Automatic annotation (TrEMBL), chain A:
PROSITE patterns: COMPLEX1_24K (PS01099)
Name listed for the protein in its UniProt record: NADH-quinone oxidoreductase subunit E
Pfam family for this entry, one: 2Fe-2S_thioredx
Alphabetical keyword list: 2Fe-2S, Iron, Iron-sulfur, Metal-binding, Oxidoreductase
Cofactors that this protein relies on: [2Fe-2S] cluster
Signal peptide: none
Cofactor binding note from Swiss-Prot or TrEMBL: Binds 1 [2Fe-2S] cluster.
Length: 177, 454
């Protein structure tokens, strides 16, 4: 595919059996199926579940999920490519989501995004060479009174300033150690 | 608890001891009283109460909730199961009110669903939560578990005939999921494209069954309307609309935030008293009264009450009630470009005015912002606004997307034209001069330390 990254990025190793899914993933998907009135209803949750284990959704993951659930792989991929939070390319251990909504931009968020880019030496949509960080701006994160904001590692960072960025990145990077 | 009639029903549970999301605290402040009362009422009585209260949907469109709910088939031979869905996919630019309700009062939302279940005989509820709202997810999960332990969810709730359970669905992120039929498609494991209506979801929604989708704040109002009565609710509003509303302000104001205020509170009061007025050195140029998909209003509209119809008469919409302020230092073309870019990116691609029209508008705006625009581009933009008007599209995304654009072309036309005549962005030119000055100042005072990182 044209949008595959140039360099090989190591992905999290998940121990799978012949089905291509780990035992944990299979249990999770079984539970989803038992709750959903119809099979297709599990699609997004199942994709998120696999992504939580592996970091992203590879072609192999899609195939494995399709074989395990009998949902056509085209249906799975049509969903996987539609949503902002399902990644069809590898991402770093931590995905930084600075807000690019209008309320943040009114408060100088564009400059914050430039600083992040500059500090990490990557553009939006790219991953650092050490595979620690990916930068993906997201639209309005719904914390407009605390603008500019960013979400990373399930945490919301509020009233961001340029000067705190190096320390913030350093602290977030601890997760990688 | 004695029957005192609150003036701030939605936020009175939020206390300073930081545990307003726990069941105990919620019940101590009168939580689940509305639901208990609803168990003693018939479905007809509940629906009549809801209609009489004049509650209108708080998600943006302002459709009368009682009327919407009255389309759901009822009676023993009505299709089942019937579903209730809380639309908690808050993604409207500049809207942040649902996050607060989700994080601070998850039980209020659950109680709203329970009242809804009793009203419509629904057996399953879903909370469709924005995927990025992690704290809300944690607290809702905890609240749902507390309710199951306390027998407020499950079979024969509180010994009644009502059986109801709630599932939490966290979205994978797309603005279009806020459109109710797109949301339903998303829950069915499809791309979130809107459906043609009719049939309306009230008749054939999730899995083809009767489904009600309402905003978080709408559901939050239900228990209080049942508990304190429709008359009380109507009297809360200062003008025509009933109840209170969570209003918010973001942008260059002294005290950005959220406040629960009566419907019909004048815009000036919200911006000047509650949000503390404009920051020093900035003045108000215009504002979007209800989030990113509403038309700009300007200073002369400040005394208009925040009421659905009053704002509508001025050519805009109250939308989510979260005001975004455009100050005099920020480029209006830039602001509209940010919004159009967002809507172009979030368009599901299902119909042409949105899929093709919005990226085209983005290209033209970028051109103007770079200083390469021509006067014909403005005419072209106006044409695109008509192209994306209601009636030409499946859903309200494109018509909403062009609202800030068409109104900016009206109120800030001089700014568009000055970009073209001066062949640059007059605001950026000023800003970069200012940034240069700031930068040299910081280098002088910080001994060169701070500029290393940038």
């Amino acid at each position: 595919m044209a949008n595959r990254p140039q360099q090989a990025i190591p992905i999290a190793l998940v121990e799978t059996d012949a089905s291509g899914l780990s035992e944990k993933e299979q249990h999770g998907i079984d539970a989803l199926i038992s709750h959903s009135p119809q099979l297709a209803g599990i699609t997004i949750d199942a994709l998120k579940l696999i992504q939580a284990e592996r970091g992203w959704i590879s072609d192999a993951s899609l195939n494995a999920l399709s074989i395990y659930t009998n949902i056509p792989v085209a249906d799975l991929d049509s969903v996987a490519t539609f949503y902002n939070l399902i990644f069809r390319q590898p991402v770093g251990t931590i995905v930084l989501h600075p807000c690019d909504g209008i309320s943040c931009d009114l408060m100088g968020a564009e400059h914050i995004r430039q600083c992040l880019s500059h500090h990490l030496n990557i553009n939006a949509g790219e991953t650092t060479a050490d595979n620690h960080f990916t930068l993906i701006p997201l639209p309005c994160l719904g914390a407009c009174d605390k603008a500019p904001v960013m979400i990373a590692n399930k945490q919301l960072f509020e009233n961001m300033t340029e000067t705190e960025i190096p320390e913030l990145i350093r602290a977030l990077g601890e997760v990688n150690k | 608890m004695s029957q005192t009639f609150p003036h701030n029903p939605l936020t009175r549970f939020i206390t300073s001891d930081e545990a307003s999301w726990c069941l105990q605290q919620y019940q101590n402040h009168g939580g689940y009283q509305g639901f208990r009362k609803s168990l003693e009422m018939s479905q007809g009585q509940l629906l009549d109460t809801l209609k009489e209260s004049n509650l209108r949907g708080r998600g943006g469109a302002g459709f009368p909730t009682g009327l919407k709910w009255s389309f759901v088939p009822r009676g023993d031979d009505a299709p089942s199961p019937r579903y209730l869905i809380v639309n908690a996919d808050e993604m409207e630019p500049g809207a942040f009110k649902d996050r607060m309700l989700l994080e601070k009062t998850p039980h209020q939302i659950i109680e709203g669903l329970l009242v809804g279940a009793q009203t419509l005989g629904a057996s399953i509820g879903y909370i469709f939560l924005r995927g990025d709202y992690y704290l809300a997810e944690e607290r809702l999960t905890q609240a749902l578990n507390e309710c199951r332990d306390a027998k407020l969810l499950g079979q024969n709730i509180l010994g009644s005939e009502l059986s109801f359970d709630i599932h939490l669905h966290t979205s994978a992120g797309r603005y279009i999921c806020g459109e109710e039929t797109a949301l339903i498609n998303s829950m069915e494991g499809k791309r979130a494209t809107p459906r043609a209506k009719p049939p309306f979801p009230q008749v054939a929604g999730l899995w083809g069954k009767p489904t009600i989708v309402n905003n978080v704040e709408t559901f939050c109002n239900l228990p209080h309307i049942i508990n304190f009565g429709p008359q009380w609710f109507k009297e809360l509003g200062r003008e025509d609309d009933a109840g209170t509303k969570i209003f918010g302000v973001s942008g260059r104001v002294n005290n950005p935030g959220l406040w629960e205020l009566p419907m019909g509170t004048p815009i000036r009061e919200i911006i000047e008293q509650h949000a503390g007025g404009m920051c020093d050195g900035y003045s108000l140029k215009g504002f979007l009264p209800g989030g990113g998909s509403t038309d700009f209003l300007v200073e002369k509209h400040l005394d208009v009450p925040m009421d659905y119809d009053a704002i509508g008469k001025q050519g805009s919409r109250m939308g989510t009630g979260t005001i975004i302020i455009l100050d005099d230092k920020y480029c209006p073309v830039s602001m509209v470009l940010n919004l159009i870019k967002f809507f172009a990116q979030e368009s599901c691609g299902w119909c042409t005015p949105c899929r093709d029209g919005l990226p085209w508008a983005q290209v033209l705006l970028e051109k103007i912002e770079r200083g390469e625009g021509e006067l014909e581009d403005i005419t072209q933009l106006e044409e695109l606004c008509r192209f994306a008007a209601p009636g030409n599209t499946f859903c309200a995304l494109a018509p909403g997307a062009v609202e800030p654009l068409q109104s900016a072309l009206n109120y800030f036309r001089e700014d568009f034209e000055s970009h073209i005549t001066q062949a640059c962005c007059p605001f950026h030119a000023k800003q970069s001069l200012k940034l240069d000055a700031d930068h040299s100042r910081s280098m002088n005072t910080d001994g060169g330390e701070s500029h290393e990182q940038v």
